[in-house]
């Protein structure tokens, strides 16, 4: 029994370290909507006053909705989240415009197992620089 507990603690430390080192904002929730893991990048992106440790165990819906003024289209953002949560389908790299001009790609990955739905994973990657570069290249190409 002690070996199993140690293995679980090792995996938890490994996951915590991995999440802390990612340059992507991450939130993982179980099938009941309880936050299982979140990184500081996510807390910073959505201006959460809580640390990742404090967010774990709370209802993810509290942390999925951005504060007023953070995204370009708050009502569209909220409606899209509701749709993704309800449908439990994987979506990758959907652009999300932030009010300050940054562009993120949101991915929602439905976590499933043989016995059904287990929860979901949210990823937000800052692609602002890439989008600016793509627009510049497009401008150069269309100017030829």
Note down, in words, how this protein is organized.
With 144 residues, this protein is an alpha+beta fold. It has six helices and five strands; from the N terminus they run H-E-E-H-H-H-H-E-E-E-H. A hairpin with a 5-residue loop joins strand 3 and strand 4 (103-113). The longest helix has 20 residues, at 2-21. The relative contact order is 0.13.
Q: Brief overview, please?
A:
By secondary structure, this protein is an alpha+beta fold.
Topology:
Elements: H1 2-21, E1 25-30, E2 35-38, H2 40-45, H3 52-55, H4 61-64, H5 74-87, E3 91-97, E4 103-113, E5 116-126, H6 128-142
Cα-based radius of gyration, to the nearest Å: 18 Å
Number of DSSP E strands: 5
Return the average pLDDT rounded to an integer: 89
Any low-confidence stretches, pLDDT <50, length ≥5? none
Helix content: 40-55%
**SSE pattern:** HEEHHHHEEEH
Percent strand:
25-35%
Q: For the report, how would you describe the main beta sheet? A: 5 strands, antiparallel
> Could you give the order of strands across the largest sheet?
2-1-5-4-3
Shape by Cα distribution: globular
Number of helices: 6
Please identify the structural class as seen in this structure. Answer: alpha+beta
Distinctive features:
144 residues, alpha+beta, five-stranded antiparallel sheet, 6 helices, 27% strand
